[in-house]
Amino acid sequence: MTNPTLIAGNNKVTFKSFGVDLVGDLYLPEGFNESKKYKAIVGASPFPQVKEQVLGTYGPEMAKRGFVFLGFDYLGMGDSPALPGEYKQSRYMFRLIENTWDAVSYLGTLPFVEEIYGLGVCQGGSIIASASVTDHRIKKIATVSGMMAADGFQWTDRNIANMMIEAANASRQKMYETGEADYNAPNVLTDEYTKEEFVGLGVNPMAADTYDYYGKDGVAGPGTIKNFTNMHIGDQAMQSLISIGEHYADKIVQPSLIIYSPSAFTAICSTQFIEKLTNEHEVLTFDEFGHVDFYYKPDAVKASTDAVAEFFNK
């Protein structure tokens, strides 16, 4: 664990998880004073992002609102290493949860941290929801365009789900036998597609929005963000098709805020999760925004970060 001299703004930090150093950005508010106490947020990002994407947008915004914010690269992603003998671009759900627990532990070592909250966007919503089930050090959680209830989204067409599983199984076997990484594009988008090519495939109902963010010409695509690629380890579906937070939703005790767009293709991932909650929770909807809008568009980011700040400050 590295604790450099900390200043307002973005600070590069590391902390241990699975015995290796995960790399993070610790955003501190203006006028930061180590002798004061602050509310801290551990951020969880969409799949398959690195810390410079959504977390690099939300971190400064939450710091402006007076919070300490930790965004970090999960094991095998971005600036964080893979385990010995394993491969980069290996974002596995169960490890994401444990990485998050270790991020909470790291924040707990900082003398200026008073309470710890969780904020997850897209897949990050599932990660934060899952992590909070048995980590009550996280005092409140908020999700934005969260993919918590993934069953109704990913398993609606069992044939497609089973095809994904078959391909993932084959990839895992290949990697075991060859000792070499096997990569594919789990969201179909590659680093080479033009927008016209990707939209023309007709396989993604959010294709245009997805490309505008992740494409090679996108605002946060491989041509813009260091260490990001749309390519991923080939056995990813063996874990990404399992949603823990959804099935333990009724066990979550922390007050929760769920923000989503009813008009978004992914709305069901929030609505079915909300139906299962038994805790104190609030729901905030923005019909004027789409799923990806919350990643980076100024009006959507302001709406969500204002709401999260108000909720965490209650």
UniProtKB/TrEMBL annotation:
SUPFAM superfamilies: alpha/beta-Hydrolases. Gene3D superfamilies: 1.10.10.800, alpha/beta hydrolase. Transmembrane segments: none annotated. It comes from the Bacteria. This is Alpha/beta hydrolase.
